[in-house]
Design goal:
Thrombin, subunit H; 321 residues; 6-stranded antiparallel beta barrel; 4% helix; mainly beta; single chain; 6-stranded antiparallel barrel
C-alpha cells in the first residue's frame, strides 16, 4: 500500500510502501489523497478495507477572503492577437526582473488567484530568488503604470519540487506577495477549475493573454494582447509529430494557424470561460513551444487541474465558483 498525502498520481511525496498485516492511517494535505494497492499474482489470499473520513483541520488556515468573487470579466481583446482592456482580464500579472541586470523589464506573466498569491511557470522562477521578482497587477502598458496599477515585492517563492528544466514537466510555481493587493475593476482573481477537475477541455476555446513578442525573436508588445486558441487534450497532443513525444500527463496543447503564445507570455494564463456563467477559469499556464506559430506545431501548457491540492497546500484556500 502506497499513499500520497497530496493526491499526487505519481506518488512523489509518498513514504515507503507498507506491506503485511496491520492498520495504516494517513491524512491528506489538501482536499484529495491518492492510494495505490498492489499485490503479486502469487499472493495466497487476503484482502483489505478502506475508510475515508473528512476531518476538521486541527490548524485551520485563515477563513476564505470575504470578497472571493472570481473570474468576472469586463463586458467590453501573442501572435495574431488583438488588444484587450484591463477589465477583460483583471487577474493578468506582469513579472518584472529586478535583478542587478534586469532593470525592471517584463520577462514573464502570471495569474492572480487571491489577494496575496500569484501562479506562474516554474521556468520563470528557475534559479531565481524572491527578491529579484517584481509583481505588477492592474497593468496594461509595460512602459508606464496604468491608473489603478499596484506593484508588490515577492515575499516567498514556491517552485514545484518536481519541476524538471530539461523536460519542463511540472512547470508551475507560486508567488506570495509581500502585502495583499486591493481588488478593483482592474484587479480581480481568476477562478481555479475545481469543478472541472475531470475535464480535458478538448476542442474548447481558451484565451492566452500577455505582453510577449508578436513573432519569434521579435519585440514584445507594449500593450496587453489576447488570442483565442482551440485546446487539444493531453492524449490528442501526444499524437502530434512535432511535440508529441515530449508531452506528459501534466501538459496539454493549443493550436490555430498563425496564432500562438510567444516569448514573454510564459507563466501567464490560458483562460477558459464557462459560457453558462461567464466566469473565467485558469485551466493552463503558458509553458513551452517550438518557435511561435509554426505550422502544425502546438503550444504547450501546464495542466492546472493536476495541481489543485498542491496549490491549496500552500495557499490555504482555493478561490473558485
Amino acid at each position: 500500500m502506497v499513499v500520497s498525502p497530496s493526491g499526487d498520481p505519481y506518488f512523489s511525496d509518498a513514504d515507503r510502501a507498507v506491506c503485511g498485516q496491520g492498520r495504516l492511517e494517513s491524512y491528506s494535505k489538501g482536499n484529495s489523497i491518492a492510494i495505490h494497492f498492489h499485490s503479486t499474482y502469487y499472493t495466497p489470499g487476503g484482502g483489505f478495507s478502506c475508510v475515508a473520513q473528512a476531518l476538521p483541520n486541527e490548524n485551520p488556515t485563515p477563513a476564505p477572503e470575504p470578497d472571493c468573487e472570481c473570474g468576472i470579466k469586463g463586458q467590453n481583446r501573442v501572435v495574431g492577437g488583438q488588444p484587450t482592456r484591463l477589465t477583460d482580464w483583471p487577474w493578468q500579472v506582469l513579472l518584472g526582473d529586478i535583478s542587478p541586470s534586469g532593470g525592471g523589464n517584463q520577462y514573464c506573466g502570471g495569474t492572480l488567484i487571491s489577494s496575496s498569491w500569484v501562479i506562474t511557470a516554474a521556468h520563470c522562477t528557475y534559479n531565481r530568488k524572491a527578491d529579484t521578482i517584481m509583481v505588477v497587477v492592474g497593468q496594461d502598458n509595460i512602459k508606464q503604470l496604468s491608473p489603478g496599477s499596484e506593484v508588490r515585492k515577492v515575499a516567498r517563492l514556491i517552485q514545484h519540487p518536481d519541476f524538471l528544466r530539461r523536460t519542463v514537466d511540472n512547470d508551475i510555481a507560486l508567488l506570495e506577495l509581500e502585502s495583499p493587493v486591493t481588488y478593483s475593476a482592474v484587479i480581480r482573481p481568476i477562478c481555479l477549475p475545481t469543478r472541472y477537475v475531470n475535464s480535458n477541455f478538448d476542442g474548447q476555446i481558451g484565451v492566452v493573454t500577455g505582453w510577449g513578442t508578436t513573432d519569434f525573436g521579435g519585440e514584445s508588445s507594449t500593450n496587453l494582447l489576447e488570442v483565442s486558441l482551440p485546446i487539444i487534450s493531453t492524449d490528442n497532443c501526444k499524437t502530434n509529430a512535432k511535440v508529441g513525444n515530449k508531452i506528459t500527463q501534466n501538459m496539454f496543447c493549443t493550436y490555430a494557424d498563425n496564432k500562438d503564445a510567444c516569448q514573454g507570455d510564459s507563466g501567464g494564463p490560458l483562460n477558459w470561460v464557462d459560457r453558462s456563467t461567464g466566469r473565467a477559469y485558469l485551466v493552463g499556464i503558458t509553458s513551452w513551444g517550438i518557435g511561435c506559430a509554426n505550422e502544425d506545431t502546438p503550444g504547450v501548457y501546464t495542466k492546472v487541474t493536476n495541481y489543485l491540492s498542491w496549490i491549496q497546500q500552500y495557499t490555504g484556500q482555493l478561490c473558485s465558483a
